[in-house]
Predict the 3D structure of the following.
Amino acid sequence: MTDQNPIVTVLKALNENQLALGAAIEEIALWLDARGSTEVVDNIRGALDALDRNLNTINRGISEIA
């Protein structure tokens, strides 16, 4: 079994952290939405959309490096 490239290992960990932060922020957005802070929630979801848009590109790039 060959050792995985350390750059790939780090990129995968960073990607996993990014996904976890996105999920946590979405939970906060749900909490805020339930309390009527719709403008803040809209801003949060707009920022989270960038994470979603870039996810496939990031995963493809990591796969190509691996």
